[in-house]
Design a protein that fits this description.
One of its GO terms (cellular component) is cytosol. This protein is an alpha/beta fold. The protein is built from 31 helices and 33 strands. The protein has five domains: about 120 residues, Serine Threonine Protein Phosphatase 5, Tetratricopeptide repeat (Alpha Horseshoe); about 180 residues, Aconitase, domain 4 (Alpha-Beta Barrel); about 150 residues, Aconitase, domain 3, CATH 3.30.499; about 150 residues, Aconitase, Domain 2 (3-Layer(aba) Sandwich); about 190 residues, 2-Layer Sandwich (Aconitase, domain 3), CATH 3.30.499.10. The chain is about 40% helix and about 15% strand.
Length: about 900
Amino acid sequence: MNIYNDYIKEIEERKGQGLHPKPIDGAELLSEIIAQIKDLHNEYRADSLNFFIYNVVPGTTPAANVKANFLKEIVLGQSVVAEITPAFALELLSHMKGGTSIAVLLDLALGTDVAIANEAAAVLKTQVFLYEADTDRLEAAFKSGNEIAAAILESYAKAEFFTKLPEIAEEIKVVTFVAGEGDISTDLLSPGNQAHSRSDRELHGKCLISPEAQAEIKALATANPDKSVMLIAEKGTMGVGSSRMSGVNNVALWSGKQASPYVPFINIAPIVAGTNGISPIFLTTVDVTGGIGLDLKNWVKKVDENGNVVRNESGDPILEEVYSVATGTVLTINTKTKKLYSGDKELIDISKAFTPQKIEFIKAGGSYAIVFGKKLQTFASKTLGIAIVPVYAPSKEVSVEGQGLTAVEKIFNKNAVGSTPGKILHAGSDVRVTVNIVGSQDTTGLMTSQELESMAATVISPIVDGAYQSGCHTASVWDNKSKANIPRLMKFMNDFGLITARDPKGVYHAMTDVIHKVLNDITVNEWAIIIGGDSHTRMSKGVAFGADSGTVALALATGEASMPIPESVKVTFKGEMKGYMDFRDVVHATQAQMLKTFGGENVFQGRIIEVHLGTLNADQAFTFTDWTAEMKAKASICISEDYTLIESLEMAKGRIQIMIDKGMDNKNQVLKGLIAIADKRIAEVISGEKPALRPDANAKYYAEVVVDLDQIAEPMIADPDVNNADVSKRYTHDTIRPLSFYGGVKKVDLGFIGSCMVHKGDMKILAQMLKNIDEHEGKVAFKAPLVVAPPTYNIVDELKAEGDWEILQKYSGFEFDDNAPKGVARTGYENMLYLERPGCNLCMGNQEKAAKGDTVMATSTRLFQGRVVEDTEGKKGESLLSSTPVVVLSTILGRTPTIEEYITAVEGINLTKFAPSHKLLVK
């Protein structure tokens, strides 16, 4: 009774928060509940029945195992529960989505009781989440002459689990809710500072937008019971940023529909829209839940009588409203004509939201069911020795004779599975590809583990070369929430087969390195495909896609991902960097020059950026590829010179060896295997057998951008533009300003150097600047706090070995101690240097934050409202993004420097340099 009483106590505590009982995932609690159900006179029996039927997490959770086995007892008559008939028990099993429930159904279907076997087989025919252990049993039974096994396989071969589902509605009525103007960051839908609660879906749902917005959404749904509430980014893009799965989950919780009456707080089928469409990764996540994402195009650029775009005083295009989507507007989605209507008036073509594949996702309740369904149909057809019946929409295959391949097209063709043999595929083709590297991060990892449990996966696919579970997003504060969540996550992922930042057995020291940096190191082939649970999964080797936690789970379980081959934009460089500039300025200038070249159109959005950075090693080039998330690109590829690729792979080998030396390799010796892959690739490049990846000369690009290095005359700063009169222009990452814009007078309250946008060179720049000031002035006096979070431990170790860490220690008032990590987030800062633990720190916004209303100068990537710094009544917090030397100088001065002060301060400093050819970087 102790466990049950604790659960009842927790329920009472949750009532005070306006929450329902937390779904049960533990075996011990559910076993006690079952004992109370069996005791007909137990005072808690009625509540226990309710918990058992409606409040158990499905899949492969310990509770699901217990539930499935008890339902089996009921079906066989071994246990009698008046309220749960054998037929109802089978219905409950049908909603448990794999794992033990499938094993139980197979036990029943292949058992000796013919009546029960037929009933269980009828349920099995609706299921898709079967793994090798399940299909092996079916195959063995079929080969031994079992007629029911044959009938199940015949049903699977016809894909009746899909074909017998109801067709999607021809008309879907929606009522609009404008979530905000401008780009809607996923931070608005699932704030980083609430990351700890993401696995508790109902609790996390309380942080969607605001309580007022939640009340308005609920009121709209109540007033329009026959309609779905559609969340809209007015004059912007929906779902930019990170944390897509929790963002979509929250939207679905408030405006979607329940996936199963027997599984609480798992909702599907949200409908979202944006004037400029949906962020690519967010749209993939919407597909995971069987939802709909619309590109509204309800605002267009105004043109004059000659067809020229009319611009305002700032040079921005003036927008005109084509039709209104103001909150409360009723619209109709027609899935047959693939048009959006207001009454009988046609507004816009929405066919991109209703491709044959997307219609299948909607019909099946999400993309997972389609992936597993195809796999199951293929297995059944092969076992029966028959041809695959065309059931699913054929994959679109685009092949243009005589046209070369871009880098991403080459990678996708190499990794493609299931496409027409020998056929060369170009952009626009729908492709299933094998995945080489997978990454899971700690604030979404618990959701990934839940997704793996829900799809009944228990071990990583052998196709995957390597996978890593990070601890970087919870690195800065080891609080009670982290202590409760992270060890549990690390154990699950370690057991599943990932290399984990923390060792559940406590053998090796916790490593809080930034996930993208680790993935960049363990990617040891530039032909690799990487899937990572973070929007900054943008490697400088291979092509990497930031993904929702569900897509990460799918990649871990199956070793595959499905997507169209994206179009590419080619980025090259001309001219020469000025001696006082840093490569970070080139990154920002690329965005600014691109927008200027194309009249404000972001040609990067939703596409691959193929950037020719051949002279930079993987650490340095990562600064560019990482930022492509802020450019709204789907992914990026770095085209490297042979010699820099070899340098990068040798660097990766050394860092992987450090992980091995720490004891982080697993029983499958994954890390050792990665070193072998790197050695093979190096040998191929040296011998000339297979040089570094290059696009074909006659490849076709959506656009080409040539960045003029000669035009970059001063440091470039990405400004959130918090006071822009046009709300849609705020927090977009598109406002790139020169340092002189600030006139050397803008007050800076806090500086931050760290997270994934810095590498070892940045840390050495910091050390060199402090040494210079210390030598010339006698000491360094900070007029604003400077928070420093190195991205990885190996960088810290190298800085110590090379003598740079000593100067950082000299001016630090705080230095991280892994043996006594901070248990509480810092609430105030002094004018000194803080040496923080490697990890995300301020950039994530879930632990440390700047004081409200501060102006922060940072090297990080996020300038979204409330992420790094929140607003006060009188002043908006702003996070300006710049290079390391600008951040250092801003904290020493307490303000933005003038260009003259900057040039003087960086004299003699070894900044990160770049040249379009290797003439300046030969070593």
